[in-house]
Design goal:
Strand order of the largest sheet: 3-5-4-6
Number of domains: 1
CATH topology: Spore Coat Polysaccharide Biosynthesis Protein SpsA, Chain A
Radius of gyration: 17 Å
Distance between the termini: 15 Å
């Protein structure tokens, strides 16, 4: 749930938004060729997500609590097959171009880690081709230091790291307003989320940058 958005939008609006973001993100992943798609979530959410997304998508319960533990379990599980390149990205950047994800996979042919920074000091994407248990330990997930801490760990582990273009995810009012304007011009980038903006147009009109 987008807790910071919930401070200015109704819970029903935020829930509907999250559902649209997730469906559009899965559709984005499905548009890539030759990839296996999985959604990783806390154990209590596994059955609900499986019902929501339907067949054809692997739903895997993470090990441990919190986002850092979730990412650690993602790479431990999916890199168990030698040579497997794994990209983990969030569910609130469905407007990301598929070419960015393809570029991230390509970067892993020559690097051990790939990172997609956000403009607020975090990251929307991280990829690796092996498990590094300490990579996300204490990295301040959800803070403005998350990216710096991740980079410090890649350096400490001596992991050659590639960076793809900075982007933004949907955390605060400014992000939502920006996405609304972009999808008004190109709704095909995230059609379900674009439809959400039309449905909740009046509520969005009251949002102001810095309101959250």
């Amino acid at each position: 749930m987008k807790t910071r958005l919930a401070q200015s939008l109704s819970s029903s609006a935020v829930t509907a938004l999250y559902c649209c973001l997730l469906r559009d993100t899965v559709a984005l992943a499905k548009s890539l060729r030759g990839v296996t798609i999985a959604v990783v979530c806390p154990e209590p959410d596994k059955n609900e997500l499986a019902d929501f997304l339907g067949s054809g998508i692997e739903i895997r319960a993470q090990e441990g609590d919190g986002l850092a533990a979730g990412l650690t379990s993602v790479f431990a599980h999916f890199t168990a097959v030698a040579g497997q390149r794994v990209i983990a990205f969030n569910s609130d950047s469905p407007h990301l171009a598929a070419s960015v994800l393809e570029g991230a996979f390509e970067s892993l042919t020559a690097h051990d880690v790939v990172i997609g920074p956000t403009h607020d000091g975090g990251y929307y994407l991280v990829g690796a081709k092996a498990s590094h248990p300490s990579l996300f330990a204490g990295d301040g997930m959800g803070t403005r230091s998350a990216l710096d801490r991740l980079i410090s760990r890649t350096r400490a582990l001596e992991l050659p790291t590639a960076f793809i273009e900075p982007f933004y995810d949907i955390d605060v009012a400014e992000d939502l307003i920006r996405l609304s304007r972009e999808l008004e011009l190109a709704p095909q980038r995230a059609p379900r989320t674009a439809a959400w903006f039309k449905e909740w147009k009046q509520a969005i009109a009251h949002l102001k940058p810095g309101a959250l």
